[in-house]
Write a structure and sequence with these properties.
The chain is mainly alpha-helical and 251 residues long. The chain contains 9 helices and 4 strands. Helix content is 34%, strand content 5%.
């Protein structure tokens, strides 16, 4: 999970806290039956305080990455059988190559997150989607599956005819048409941003395509991503604009 850190309240005085977040709001405690309170109950409660900001007011965010319940060390090379990542972010090898999960899975999920953060919407969309719905979304976005995966995908006939074209009588919640990655990037929330040039869009697509290689062994590595054209020309300069350290340059 990617979180915004709370503002630095530890060093604030009580007066500064009240000035920034308002006075505590007290609510009288009453029994449902109207009887007097006993000594075990407080006479009032205090409403929780809102410590956050609206997204448009965040000018210098501190980012925290949390929830490492399924993380493993880079020295751990033992095969992994499954991930509990939400289905819309799962890489295709969780369906077709169980037991071969590794760090390339992180690159796939990272690419999904990059698109969502920059575009304001998920790349692979669906309503109560299962893995097969998402596989069809991958094909819509990235093109045909590798042939060996296509042959073992049991649900393909629910989406496609034998020649690989979309079924017109599909009973799934999936539009029977392809929407390539380039089209989805153009449809991101930044499409009206004058600073998001066609040149940047093309560079971003190249980076994401490398991160979305179907076969994990062909997928971009973290080193490839940090050295990509988009990262060098747009990603890193954006970090420096806001005086945010570039993590891999200090390691």
């Amino acid at each position: 999970n990617i979180l915004f850190a709370l503002p630095p309240i530890d060093s604030m005085s009580v007066e500064e806290l009240y000035q920034s977040f308002g006075l505590p709001r007290e609510t009288k405690v009453q029994r449902v039956d109207g009887a007097p309170l006993g000594p075990e109950a407080p006479s009032y409660s205090v409403m929780p305080v809102w410590l956050g900001d609206f997204c448009e007011d965040v000018s210098d965010p501190r980012i925290c990455i949390s929830d490492f319940g399924e993380a493993w060390l880079n020295t751990d090379t033992s095969p992994k059988d499954d991930l509990h990542t939400p289905v819309l972010y799962l890489p295709p090898e969780t369906t077709f190559e169980k037991g071969s999960l590794g760090f390339p899975a992180d690159i796939w999920t990272l690419a999904c997150s990059i698109h969502e953060i920059m575009g304001g919407r998920q790349l692979f969309e669906g309503f109560f989607s299962d893995k097969d719905d998402v596989i069809s979304e991958m094909i819509s976005t990235l093109g045909p599956l590798p042939q060996d995966w296509w042959q073992i995908w049991k649900a393909r006939e629910e989406f496609f005819t034998e020649d690989g074209s979309w079924r017109t009588d599909m009973k799934r919640c999936q539009a029977p048409r392809s929407m390539p990655l380039s089209e989805r990037i153009q449809g991101m929330g930044r499409k009206d941003d004058p600073e998001f040039s066609p040149e940047e869009a093309e560079s971003l697509e190249r980076m994401l395509r490398a991160m979305f290689e179907y076969k994990p062994e062909k997928r971009a590595t973290a080193k490839d991503v940090t050295a990509s054209d988009w990262m060098i020309r747009w990603g890193i300069p954006s970090l420096r604009t806001y005086n945010i350290p570039v993590p891999w340059e200090s390691s």
